[in-house]
Write a structure and sequence with these properties.
Number of strands: 8
Distance between the termini: 26 Å
Radius of gyration: 16 Å
CATH architecture: 3-Layer(aba) Sandwich
Strand order of the largest sheet: 1-2-4-3-5-6-7-8
Order of helices and strands: EEEHEHEHEHHEHEHH
CATH superfamily: Alpha/Beta hydrolase fold, catalytic domain
CATH class: Alpha Beta
Largest sheet: 8 strands, mixed
């Protein structure tokens, strides 16, 4: 069952909070949320993913939720945080699931350390290539936020002008990968998702046409797609 209080692990002097469901002895599945969200955003599917036979662990990324807000933000730092958390939790390999910001991060983690990832699920985002996204700076909303605002424009700048290696390295991922596309209702360029799934040697595409928040708006279909994907490994 889903734990109550959010535990935290210290990595590089930074506290990263997480939520989990499932049995500690089950193989780990690590979930990475979208920008401005937190581990709690996985609540619609966390228990169901654990019921597939996994210890499902949803992280609060730096600057989000109950994790620390260090003021320094980049996709490279997010990638390194995930690898550090795997070390701290003594996780050698995991199924890695990412949504939006978390999907970009998950792709970078897998490209950098494929030996740590047994299977990869990218929900409605992939590591971008130059020219595919235009994310200009946004003004800070005049309200209290559950995340550290500076992270937003720091990461949006990287999405607008990504390191070309992100896309090139993603194309050479050999880990079994499921790309879950939100279809026409999504604001994410779907062509990039389709192309990456097609060029990967172990890639698969599942389209669930409910928009960007697939696991929120179609949780049963989302879990079913992951169940089918993992059953074939």
């Amino acid at each position: 069952m889903v734990s109550g209080a959010a535990p935290r692990v210290i990595v590089g002097g930074l506290a990263i909070a997480y939520r989990e469901a499932g049995q500690p002895a089950d193989p780990p599945m690590v979930l990475l949320h979208a920008m401005g969200e937190a581990a709690v955003s996985w609540e619609p599917v966390l228990a169901d993913l654990a019921n597939l036979g996994y210890r499902a662990i949803a992280l609060d990324a730096r600057g989000h939720g109950d994790s620390d807000r260090p003021g320094a933000y980049s996709y490279e730092l997010l990638r390194n945080d995930v690898l550090d958390v795997l070390d701290a939790l003594r996780i050698d390999r995991c199924v890695l699931v990412g949504h939006s910001m978390g999907a970009t991060t998950a792709g970078l983690v897998t490209a950098a350390a494929s030996d740590r990832v047994s299977a990869l699920v990218l929900e409605d985002a992939v590591p971008p290539r130059p020219g595919s996204l235009d994310r200009p700076p946004l003004p800070r909303p005049d309200k209290e936020l559950p995340f550290d605002w500076p992270l937003v424009n720091a990461l949006r700048a990287q999405l607008t002008n990504p390191d070309p290696a992100w896309w090139e390295d993603a194309k050479h991922i050999t880990v079994p990968t499921l790309v879950i596309a939100g279809g026409a209702p999504s604001h994410i360029p779907q062509a990039d998702l389709h192309e990456l799934a097609a060029v990967l040697v172990n890639g698969r595409l599942a389209e669930i046409a409910v928009g960007h928040l697939v696991h929120v708006h179609a949780p049963l279909e989302f879990v079913a797609a992951i169940r089918s994907f993992l059953a074939d490994l």
